[in-house]
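Here is an idea for our session: we take a single protein and study its fold together. To get us started, please write out a protein record for me. Start from the sequence, derive the backbone structure tokens from it, and show both lines together. Go ahead whenever you are ready, and we will take it from there:
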Amino acid sequence: MVQIAGTLLHPRFSSRALRMALHDVVLVPGDGIGPEVARAVQRILGAAGAPLRWHEHPAGLAALEQGLEVLPASTVEAIRETGVALKGPCTTPVGEGFGSVNVRLRKTLDLYAALRPVRNLAGVRSRYADIDLVVVRENTEGLYSGVENEITPGVVTSLKVATERACERIARFALHYARSRGRHRVTIFHKANIMKLTDGLFLRIARRVHDAEFPEIELDALIIDAGCMKLVQEPSRFDVLLMENLYGDVVSDLCAGLVGGLGVVPGANLGEGCAVFEAVHGSAPDLAGQDRANPLALLMSAVMLLNHLAEVRADPRCHAIAATIRGAYDRALACGETTADIGGRLGTQAFAEAVVARLG
């Protein structure tokens, strides 16, 4: 192994890494189990030779405990400066307290596209097989705009926001993603039969973008309740799913359940100038400090981060390293060497070592 700027490099990539610059990446460990899974993922990335230089910044409860805002301006600015971040889970109080760090981060950095790939993993039990789909979620509007008002005591309203600009860019993102990844069909989930203006706009704009720019991609649409029924009947029929904010939040978790849960799927939030890759599961404070948390979701998100860097920074090393890591954790899972939540017996750090052992 070779040590470069605090990163432990695998011999397979060492000589090349010595000749090329490192990529600056913000690490937001989060709270609860976040710091543990982040350390495990850093261990694997370092052993694989990922050419990354980490800049750690807090958010969520970890920031509050340091006397900072829940989403410190310094954290946001660091992500803006580097253009990329890996983020662990942050606690969001239910029904009270501070708002979601995730929602605030997406809005502040205009991370308009949430990307959630979902596939079967060898060794992870599931009721379904041959699932390989991607959920694309509009990340900035809809009911998650947070425009709520109390009209009179006991009566509140929540405003659903849809703009032509946001509908157009997420449709173009989903269709371009399908084309660039060799996928063939995009399915829109909507409720335009009831919400004729908001969902109607979303559906109409997506069809317009498709017809003008991506006619070779098959485009269809399902009313979301019927779409969810079909998802649990035959999920393998779907390819890329496109939907507005709230639907995407719900359906992406539903799809994760088809392949083993939130612990086995990655997530990315993408904008024009920034990208934040994150574990989409909760912070599980009851498991914190016990070496029981599963780092796989954050590791898979880190693989997405590497592939993103390979594309936007034209660095082929990152593609090669991402493929090496993916192959290593696939082999570990196939052998049953994983954490208890998906049927294994390993702790957090032991799972990391099992992946490292398969990097060669």
